[in-house]
């Protein structure tokens, strides 16, 4: 399915705005296609393709608001949706905190969000990528599982106050877990706008090497350890931290880990984290779900709590402007100057983990997360990896872990849309072991 293009989307959105009798009206249209190849036991078992259109309408009468969505983007289908949303809005209770839909803040920037190579990727291309991974897992006598997906999409937003935004984007993500001999596991992945930058052989080699190195794991007693988190684990951690209070809503409602600490140094000065939808190293998206240009927002700057992310609703509550964060994240953690071998060499007794598994926030105000290590966990003593260990369960405050950061890696990895380096923290609490 080809994308409809800016002019077609604009004409359809204008149908909604011209038909609406609401005080204010907003319309979103998204179209696109995606494809997915899944593999397990080193064999492709599933290929899927999706095409979809969606339209969303938000209508406002004073402080009464309603929204609705559907998949019919014919002109009559859009008019019908507008009529339904207006009928709902008229019967809504007033929301006293609502001020207005957003007005345009600034011109939407041009970002590197589309790749023709990704758009052109075929099922055969994805199968060839899987084959390269399987070749690497075969070298260690292992089996590979994972997925390779691509997404091609366009998004338009207009409202009756002058917002008029449009962009096209692509993304591709290849993930794999290699199950090696004697209980070893390894994980690797690549994510980006341009699939031509993804090197399946290198991904397969990384996961296979880790699976081979983690064979015959031993038990490690629970307790506090120095801990090296590889970039995949740091990305997992930042993903959870975002939901523990980087948004303005949780800050305003008083359950963010940032509450009462804005302007204070609450993590290590080695830690700087920001959100920037324009950063081409991420899956760049120039505007949010309201069509407002995304701003660079510092969350932590040299360890100091510096800001939260605003959509128009939360911004208006404080008399501010939206930062373009009504949905979507592009988190980045700044690099340091350390290498992983240097982190290992500086560790007296510690754990190195590849990534989190089944992690969930257990306490918002401390940003505590419970979970388990996965796909490559190692014990370090006297500056050397002495053995792989069976997975460990943890319950750890992310803020505390970031406060104790001693070293930050110089190489960044993009995983699930988050760009982060490896870190070494002086204390990470593991509660119990597992049988594998």
Q: Could you give a short description of this structure?
A:
The chain has ten helices and 19 strands. The chain is α+β, with helices and mostly antiparallel strands and 436 residues long. The two termini are 45 Å apart.
Shape descriptor: globular
Span between termini: 45 Å
Please report which band the strand proportion falls in: under 5%, 5-15%, 15-25%, 25-35%, 35-45% or over 45%.
35-45%
Could you tell me the number of beta strands? 19
State the strand order across the main sheet.
3-2-1-4-5-6
Summing up helix and strand content along with how strands pair, one would put the structural category as alpha+beta
Gyration radius, to the nearest Å?
24 Å
Give unreliable regions as ranges.
none
Mean pLDDT: 96
Q: Note the main sheet.
A: 6 strands, antiparallel
The helix content, as a percent range, equals 10-25%
DSSP helix count?
A: 10
| Pattern of helices and strands | HEEEHHHEEEHEHHEEEHEHEEEEHEEEE
Can you offer a commentary on this structure?
By secondary structure, this protein is α+β, with helices and mostly antiparallel strands. The protein has helices at 6-19, 75-90, 116-120, 123-139, 200-213, 231-243, 248-252, 312-317, 340-345, 398-403, and strands at residues 24-40, 43-61, 64-70, 143-159, 164-179, 185-192, 223-229, 273-275, 297-301, 304-305, 331-333, 349-363, 368-381, 384-388, 392-397, 405-408, 413-415, 418-420, 423-433. The protein is globular and about 70 Å long.
């Amino acid at each position: 399915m080809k994308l409809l293009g800016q002019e077609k989307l604009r004409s359809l959105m204008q149908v909604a705005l011209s038909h609406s009798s609401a005080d204010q009206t907003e319309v979103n249209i998204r179209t696109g296609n995606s494809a997915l190849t899944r593999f397990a036991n080193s064999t492709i078992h599933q290929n899927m393709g999706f095409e979809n259109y969606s339209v969303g309408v938000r209508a406002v009468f004073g402080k009464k608001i309603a929204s609705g969505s559907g998949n019919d983007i014919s002109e009559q289908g859009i008019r019908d949706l507008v009529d339904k949303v207006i009928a709902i809005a008229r019967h809504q209770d007033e929301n006293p905190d609502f001020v207005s839909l957003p007005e345009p803040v600034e011109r939407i920037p041009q970002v590197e969000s589309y790749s023709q190579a990704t758009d052109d990727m075929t099922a055969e291309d994805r199968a060839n990528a899987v084959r390269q991974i399987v070749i690497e897992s075969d070298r260690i006598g292992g089996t590979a599982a994972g997925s390779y997906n691509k997404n091609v999409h366009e998004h338009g937003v207009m409202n009756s106050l002058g917002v008029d935004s449009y962009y096209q984007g692509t993304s591709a993500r290849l993930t794999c877990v290699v199950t090696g001999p004697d209980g070893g596991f390894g994980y690797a992945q690549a994510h980006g706008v341009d699939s031509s930058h993804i090197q399946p052989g290198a991904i397969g080699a990384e996961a296979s090497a880790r699976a081979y190195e983690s064979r015959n794991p031993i038990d490690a007693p629970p307790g506090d350890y120095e801990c090296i988190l590889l970039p995949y684990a740091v990305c997992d951690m930042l993903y959870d931290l975002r939901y523990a209070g980087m948004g303005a809503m949780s800050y305003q409602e008083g359950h963010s880990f940032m509450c009462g600490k804005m302007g204070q140094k609450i993590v290590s000065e080695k830690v700087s984290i920001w959100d920037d939808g324009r950063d081409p190293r991420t899956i760049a998206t120039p505007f949010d779900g309201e069509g407002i240009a995304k701003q660079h927002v510092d969350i932590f700057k040299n360890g100091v709590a510096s800001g939260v992310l605003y959509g128009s609703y939360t911004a208006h509550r404080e008399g501010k402007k939206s930062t373009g964060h009504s949905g979507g994240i592009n988190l980045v953690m700044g690099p340091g100057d350390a290498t992983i071998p240097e982190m290992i060499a500086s560790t007296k007794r510690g754990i190195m983990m590849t990534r989190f598994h089944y992690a969930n926030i257990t306490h918002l105000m401390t940003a505590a997360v419970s979970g388990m290590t996965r796909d490559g966990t190692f014990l370090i003593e006297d500056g050397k990896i002495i053995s792989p260990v069976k997975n460990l369960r943890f319950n750890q405050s992310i803020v505390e872990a970031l406060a104790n950061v001693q070293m930050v890696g110089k190489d960044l990895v993009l995983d699930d849309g988050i760009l982060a380096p490896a870190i070494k923290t002086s204390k990470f609490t593991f509660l119990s072991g597992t049988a594998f």
